[in-house]
């Protein structure tokens, strides 16, 4: 990660050009002050030799830094060599302390952490000697002054170094935190993209499932209304064809017309997903009573309807489901059972509603029920599917020669309207 903070950019520029500038300032100051500080010829020769050496060292140092930006053994050797050149130059002329001060700014960057304080101490020795007038101190007083200045320098260096190390640690932690946040943001964006794709896929699947469920619902509704209504109409018309009595014929024709009208209304309401016609006029108990009575009138089979428990108004979906199951069970009894008596019981039992349809017909083996054909009804599987859609269940008990009992149990969901 590239650091673009202005302060860090300025520091990087100083690390690159600062030593050159300080070396130049020290050389100019030395030339201007040579007579004032009493430099002799030997000192001038030393400076003339070491300044080019410092230039060569700085060039080589730049190459090493580009290859090894982190602290290394080469960096330690170069730091010590530069300190030695700066120390000798400062001994020759105190104004070369401008160059020696570079050690303060580069120790933390070029030295391992365990050697930072020793490196700063060496630089402080050079700077303290310059601050008391140059090396070597002459007399006890200057030595005492040198020690005092060195102590002050080291105290200040320790404080500033401590803050610098804390700031460096804080910067590293901040950089790691930013990197972690970037990785987290990348992972989060990937997760969001995956969630968006999954959401789109789920929408497609939900739409397809909704279409399939709606097709099943309409098929079941048409079977329970139109198919049964047409079956009843055919039965009534067959009676008309086979009877010479005009009064009986008119009665059955009137029944057929009523069934046709009711079937037409059911078809329209099935398309609009409305409740059965019988439930528009009354609650489930009354609708079941009417349905059982009409079925008995059409088939000539005795049918009794009973309600147990305290009747409560039920949710439309619960009422419609139980009514459709009753209609299908009665239709099956009329087609297959050959029964002489049918009993329908609606039971309200706390948090459940139970619907039982029993007949005394020929019965059958539930394990040997043939698969549904294209001309057949929805039968037992259709009734089970209806009960399951509202978290209910349907059981069938039958035995050849001993009748059939169909029992549907569904949750009691009240109508809160």
Summary, kept brief:
With 417 residues, the protein is α+β, with helices and mostly antiparallel strands.
Proportion of strand residues = 5-15%
> In angstroms, what separates the terminal alpha carbons?
64 Å
For the residues shown, what is the average pLDDT?
79
Approximate helicity band: over 70%
Large-scale geometry: rod-shaped
Count of DSSP H/I helices: 12
How would you describe this structure to a colleague?
Helix 5 (102-110) runs antiparallel to helix 6. The protein is α+β, with helices and mostly antiparallel strands. The chain has helices at 6-37, 41-67, 73-92, 97-100, 102-110, 113-131, 140-242, 246-271, 277-281, 284-299, 316-337, 379-389, and strands at residues 302-308, 341-349, 352-359, 393-398, 404-411. The longest helix has 103 residues, at 140-242. The radius of gyration is 51 Å and the shape is rod-shaped.
What's the SSE blueprint?
Layout: H1 6-37, H2 41-67, H3 73-92, H4 97-100, H5 102-110, H6 113-131, H7 140-242, H8 246-271, H9 277-281, H10 284-299, E1 302-308, H11 316-337, E2 341-349, E3 352-359, H12 379-389, E4 393-398, E5 404-411
Parallel strand pairs: 1-2
Antiparallel strand pairs: 2-3, 3-5, 4-5
Helix pairs in contact: 1-2, 2-3, 3-5, 3-6, 5-6, 6-7, 7-8, 10-11, 11-12
Features:
417 residues, five-stranded mixed β-sheet, 5 strands, alpha+beta, 9% strand, 12 helices
């Amino acid at each position: 990660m590239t650091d673009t903070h202005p302060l860090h950019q300025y520091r990087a520029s100083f690390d690159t050009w600062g030593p050159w500038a300080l070396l130049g300032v020290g050389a100019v100051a030395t030339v201007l002050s040579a007579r004032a500080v009493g430099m002799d010829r030997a000192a001038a020769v030393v400076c003339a030799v070491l300044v080019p050496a410092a230039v060569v060292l700085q060039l080589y140092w730049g190459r090493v830094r580009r290859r090894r930006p982190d602290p290394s053994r080469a960096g330690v050797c170069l730091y010590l060599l530069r300190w030695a050149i700066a120390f000798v130059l400062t001994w020759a002329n105190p104004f070369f302390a401008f160059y020696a001060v570079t050690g303060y700014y580069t120790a933390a960057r070029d030295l391992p952490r365990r050697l930072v304080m020793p490196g700063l101490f060496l630089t402080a020795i050079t700077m303290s000697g310059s601050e008391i007038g140059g090396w070597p101190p002459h007399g006890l007083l200057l030595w005492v002054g040198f020690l005092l200045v060195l102590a002050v320098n080291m105290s200040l260096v320790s404080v500033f170094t401590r803050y610098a190390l804390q700031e460096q640690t804080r910067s590293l932690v901040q950089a790691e935190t930013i990197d972690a946040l970037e990785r987290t943001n990348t992972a989060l964006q990937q997760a969001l993209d995956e969630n968006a794709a999954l959401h789109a896929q789920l929408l497609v699947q939900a739409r397809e499932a909704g279409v399939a469920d709606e097709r099943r619902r309409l098929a079941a509704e048409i079977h329970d209304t139109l198919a049964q209504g047409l079956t009843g109409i055919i039965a009534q018309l067959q009676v008309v064809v086979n009877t010479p009595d005009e009064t009986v014929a008119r009665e059955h024709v009137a029944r057929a017309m009523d069934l046709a009208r009711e079937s037409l209304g059911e078809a329209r309401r099935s398309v609009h997903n409305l409740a059965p016609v019988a439930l528009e006029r009354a609650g489930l108990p009354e609708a079941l009573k009417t349905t059982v009575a009409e079925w008995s009138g059409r088939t000539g089979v005795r049918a009794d309807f009973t309600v147990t428990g305290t009747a409560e108004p039920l949710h439309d979906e619960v009422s419609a489901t139980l009514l459709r199951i009753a209609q299908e069970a009665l239709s099956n009894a009329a087609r297959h059972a050959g029964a002489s008596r049918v009993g329908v019981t609606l039971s309200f039992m706390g948090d459940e509603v139970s619907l039982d349809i029993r007949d005394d017909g020929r019965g059958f083996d539930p394990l040997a029920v043939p698969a549904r054909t294209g001309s057949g009804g929805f039968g037992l599987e259709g009734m089970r599917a209806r009960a399951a859609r509202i978290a209910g269940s349907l059981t069938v008990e039958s035995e050849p020669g001993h009748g059939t009992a169909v029992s549907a149990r569904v949750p009691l969901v009240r109508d809160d309207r």
